[in-house]
User: Fold these one by one.
Assistant:
Number 1:
Amino acid sequence: MPIITCDCTGNGTCCSVCKLNVVGYVTGWLGVRKSSIRIVEVGPRDGLQNEPTNIPTNIKIELIDKLSETGLKTIETTSFVSPKWVPQMADNRNVFTNITKRKGVSYPVLVPNLKGLEAAMEVGVTEVAVFLSASEGFSKKNINCTVDESIAKTKSVISKALENNLKVRGYISCVVGCPYDGAVRPTAVSKVADALLEFGCYEISLGDTIGVGTKNTIDAMLLHVLRLVSSDKLAIHCHDTYGQALTNICTALDLGLTVVDSSVAGLGGCPYAKGATGNVATEDLVYMLHGMGAETGVDLKTLIQAGKFISDFLQRPSASKVNNAMYSRL
Ligand SMILES: CC(C)(COP(=O)([O-])OP(=O)([O-])OC[C@H]1O[C@@H](n2cnc3c(N)ncnc32)[C@H](O)[C@@H]1OP(=O)([O-])[O-])[C@@H](O)C(=O)NCCC(=O)NCCSC(=O)C[C@@](C)(O)CC(=O)[O-]
């Protein structure tokens, strides 16, 4: 699909694309106040993958089972990646096989290549997530190939997954900043998004992997990508390293996105994005969304209990302000 370009200020006057953006902006803003927001819980994967000490399989299973009781509809469970690269995810088969899969809940897993997809299919996975980067530096460090090589490799993974009736989500990392390359141009994001959509991803999660995004940079990136991809095919994935995640999520909601990734207890960080702290805490996200009058289907108290469970196991306070404020009063 061609990228529609224009050089106006996006004020909705010069062309249909901008009018669309302004309409999207207004309806997005109004929409959130009554629409439902789908939360993609990534805590068991993005949250735990970077933990330095091995987390026993039974603890991972118990966390996922607790999250399944909260009303979350998507719980990312594990990764089928090289154990040499991400040892914490080495028990992927055991975790996926032994969780209690709740009706109506999806349990996607990350796969970087055909080997990972085949291993995931062996244990009955029905949804996978491929993951690429908008920046060369992170692509090389994270999946050991260039952006173009990753696009080429991913095409065969997605087509094999679709042939086997699996749903495929696509992640794009470093959508505004890269720990190795610095600032990332929106055009680099839309290039990858265009490819993933063309290959058949049902949704693209735009990851501020190191949490450097601000309202302006997230706005600029989204306005560019929205020229190419409709908001209903996009998700926002914000790490909270600089405390900007909730603001950046609101920016995305105001532009019409309705899918947000988050991590229970604010766990997380990528082993190949040094210094990146956790995702926005799911508890804080749910509290904010409910305060806006948006529906999430999530029971905050049950979620807080799940966050407390993993924080207690890790023997450190939760990164969720809502958890810390509310737990003692449950
Ligand atoms: C992609 C590779 C494998 C390339 O790694 P490579 O070394 O280029 O691949 P290779 O084909 O040479 O294989 C190396 C070894 O890994 C094995 N291998 C190969 N593939 C698999 C597999 N799927 N499952 C299990 N084993 C695998 C393969 O068999 C071989 O084993 P050996 O012969 O040395 O014994 C590696 O770079 C890798 O696993 N990277 C994963 C990195 C990762 O998981 N990062 C975190 C997820 S991304 C993220 O967190 C960001 C995100 C999504 O949250 C969004 C955001 O915040 O931005």
Number 2:
Amino acid sequence: MRRSIADTKVEVTRLIAPHHVNPLGTLYGGYMLHWLVDAGSIVATDLAEANVALGYLDRMHFVEPIRVGDIVKFRSWVVYVRRSSITVLVESYVKRGDKMPLATIARMIFVKLGEDGRPEPVGAEVYAQSEWERLLLSHFSEWRNSMEHLLREERPAGDLPTLGHLLVMPEDTIYGNIMYGGKLLYYLDQLAAIAAMNFKPNIYVTASVNSINFRRPILVGDVIEVQADVDYVGRTSLEVAFKVYAKGTRGRRYVAGGYMTFVNMTGGRPTPLGEELIKDPDALRRKEIGVAEAKALRAVYYSEEEPAYAAMLRRS
Ligand SMILES: CC(=O)SCCNC(=O)CCNC(=O)[C@H](O)C(C)(C)COP(=O)(O)OP(=O)(O)OC[C@H]1O[C@@H](n2cnc3c(N)ncnc32)[C@H](O)[C@@H]1OP(=O)(O)O
């Protein structure tokens, strides 16, 4: 089966309710992460016509605050297919009068699963028929093919402080007894924010997820151990590194890991943290890339014709 990238598009719209927002009145990052994974899972499942596993979520930026009563529109596309993996772009936008700025963007890699739960050929491909589709296909094929070493990465040896444990319940799952990636991200956003608050008690908002690798599946009945620590503090932002282990009848195994950036909004706007700290020198590089990308994303808007990401690529 062959479909143009444009033909894979899936749209979902949501209304923001009071229980979705933090004390500042802006949307909790965990809800947004869950909804982005929903939008990505739908478009990947639709193409694969089978179960798909979320394996990797690349830098995901929150570029526009969202408040109660906002209408948020999500659009997702399959932008590249390899043997058994499906690369997906998800964008969300928020209505502001007659304009719709980009609220978030996420790039995800899913893997098609066979009946036995193992990766299986997708059996479908996407092609480009317009200029923006060619731009995205060329960009994402290059990006995806450069990712292999990151997807296979085990976290470096050495533990971070253990922040908490969770028991995986049936309501946390997606297929059979596998924990849903959107639900894990929902919990991780809260736990990483707690790591930030343990470092300094402030009001933090999630600015970005700087990558997360879903290395192994987590099953119902597993106990998840979340380790997290602040590894970088800038003027008003800090990064939390986290590692996730699952413990159960199959022993203790490393299942996921990544980084999230939070901004101190205690003063109602980005507020100095009062001390700078660099535990992980790579965090500086992640921050520079993230800041540049978020700036580029703030300059593009919803367009009926194409993803905002295409406009951003043209400008860069
Ligand atoms: C929708 C959801 O939320 S699902 C629930 C959350 N996600 C999960 O539980 C997934 C946990 N991770 C896993 O189960 C495994 O790491 C998998 C299925 C992603 C990959 O399994 P592996 O045994 O490494 O697969 P294998 O070596 O056969 O490679 C198969 C494909 O997976 C890709 N792959 C391997 N690891 C990853 C990863 N972490 N992220 C994305 N793709 C990956 C490979 O590049 C290969 O792609 P290709 O066929 O297009 O070239």
